[in-house]
Amino acid sequence: MHFGQPSVGTSGPRLERQNCRPSTIWIFAVALFLLALTPATSSSVPIYFDETGHYYDFVQQSQISWSAANSAALAMSYEGEMGCLATITSQEENDFIYCVFGHHFWEAWLGGFQDEDANPPDSWRWITDEEWDYTNWAPGEPNGPGGASQGGHVQMWGSNSIAPGYWNDDPVNTDIAAVSGYLVEYGAMPDPVPEPGTVGLLGFGMMLAAMVNRAKKHPRDRA
Ligand SMILES: [Ca+2]
Ligand SMILES: [Ca+2]
């Protein structure tokens, strides 16, 4: 796990923290125990959430843009599952991510975004194309850029911020001073659909393997 440190202060009213249920706190305790067993130089130790069946991690990289974080997350994998910026589709998933990782960042990118020519406010998407039917915007959000949300990208506020566990929209490369890193989810991205040509080659390969296997059998088995 790559934990970040809040690097930018701010003032203003604080919202009440998101609920960390006992089960989530227990998961967090296990995560800390695993971290204690992990050498400081080791790479990430993603944490499993049984309600989604996915692993999650936070990668510390201050002032990284959403697009750079998105590319980095898509290049990651764990337990055979492709990574992507985390997608939050339920309150339970939001609580889990916030309670396990929220203590370690000020702002962290999620996998939500708008196309630049999109028509707000019904244009938010997850990079996985999951349904956009759960949101956890902080009051007054989304509000940018320029007041009319368009071309924005979603981030979660950390536990020391003004709206712990809630979401903010932010443009890609122009307001990243408070970004601590990004949240990764393994298993949310659907498997790519094979190209028709690939399917044909796969079928031919399987047929060839079956023929070779049959030829290797003992003559008495081919009677
Ligand atoms: Ca998800
Ligand atoms: Ca905003």
TrEMBL record:
Transmembrane domains' residue ranges: 24-49, 197-215
Record-annotated C-type lectin domain positions: 51-181
Keywords from the UniProt entry: Membrane, Transmembrane, Transmembrane helix
Organism: Eiseniibacteriota bacterium
KW Protease (keyword) present: no
Name of the featured protein: PEP-CTERM sorting domain-containing protein
Pfam families, alphabetized: Lectin_C (PF00059), PEP-CTERM (PF07589)
Nucleotide-binding listed as a keyword: no
